[in-house]
């Protein structure tokens, strides 16, 4: 059997068998997302683009079912995790940006709506056959920040230099304050 993310079935078919798809795929399998990452990285000189960014693992868990007892409303619980290579907009270096999405989607045909299912996001089906990969890819694309920046502040070169500067400036007033507080505590003890 091939990659179930690439199979096309109706939403009702996926839901009727309570299909669970648990798979680790590579970023390169998601063409639109890869194109976005590639466009972002193209701002860097070739030797500063980390090799193998297309091989990043995308961990997927999708669980299809019905939201209603009458089995009229197909839905899917999604959990997707990966980390894409992005360019930090503060220091202009490449870094690994973790993306994690958890969402429950109501799979509705165009023009249909369902009241009372606020816990779901509506996923509008624009064609009769649904390819799970398209859902995963869309969720990841929507999770991408408009302006990517180092998550760990210590890793960001732009912040490191400014943090060091301000650390020097701050030493004196904070040290004095700390000393004052220590004295006050001793006094009250
Ligand atoms: Zn940075």
Give an overview in words.
- The structure is a single chain.
- The chain is an alpha+beta fold.
- The protein contains 4 helices and 5 strands; from the N terminus they run αβαββββαα.
- It has a 5-stranded mixed beta sheet.
- The model has no long low-confidence stretch (mean pLDDT 89).
- The structure holds zinc ion (ZN).
- Zinc ion is lined by residues 88, 90-91, 93, 149-150, 156-158.
- Zinc ion binds next to helix 4.
Strand order of the largest sheet: 1-2-3-4-5
Low-confidence stretches: none
Strand content: 25-35%
Computed structural class:
alpha+beta
Largest sheet: 5 strands, mixed
Assembly of the depicted chains: single chain
Distance between the termini: 73 Å
Pattern of helices and strands: HEHEEEEHH
Helix content: 25-40%
By DSSP, the count of extended strands is: 5
Silhouette:
extended
The DSSP helix count reads 4
From the alpha carbons, calculate the radius of gyration and give it in angstroms.
24 Å
